[in-house]
What we know:
Number of helices: 4
Low-confidence stretches: none
Largest sheet: 2 strands, parallel
Helix content: 25-40%
Mean pLDDT: 78
Strand content: under 5%
Amino acid sequence: MFDPEHKSVDTFAEYLVDDERTTFTHEDIVQLAEAERKSYHIIRKALEAYGFKLATRPHEKHFRGVSSSDNDRYFGPGAEKMHGGTGWEQINGFAGQKG
C-alpha cells in the first residue's frame, strides 16, 4: 500500500538524505499522513524541522490562439460548466447537495 520510504517521517527523511534531495512533494505528504495517521500540516512541520522544503507545484499554462474566443469563460479548457437549464435545482434547494 505504501512505499517503503513512506513508512514514517524519520524513514522518509533518511531516504531524502540518501537520495541527496532537499525538497519533498505534496504526494509525499499525503502518503506519510496516511501511513502515520496524522494531519498534513503535522507531517509538513516535521519534514521542515529536518531542513527540507516543500516543492512548488508546476503551474499549467493555457495559451489562447488566434482562433480562440475572446470570452474564454464559456469555451475551451478551464471553462465554466455553464450550460442551459431551468434552474430548478437552485429554486428547490438541490444545488450542491448529494443524494
